[in-house]
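Sanity check

After download, print the first record. It should look like this:
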Amino acid sequence: MEGIKLTFTTEALWEAVAIAEKKRTGARALRAIFEKAMLDLMFEIPSKGDIEEVVITPEVVTHRGKPKIIRKAQKQTA
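Expected structure tokens:
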């Protein structure tokens, strides 16, 4: 995902914390929670050259939704 901005909403971060607390795993589990949430992205995104930013929301963390994909603006030719 090199060259692509990765943004986590504040709500997504708090959702991950809530999951870690519920599992009683604490901060050590945060990495695993985010890796699991982003696993498909890590394989899909590099093959698409028009993506500028990926926004991770609480729905992504809980596996109930997909991330917001922001595509690069197409350059207009003169």
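If your output differs, re-run the checksum step. Summary of this record's structure: Residues 12 and 58 are 4 Å apart (CA to CA).
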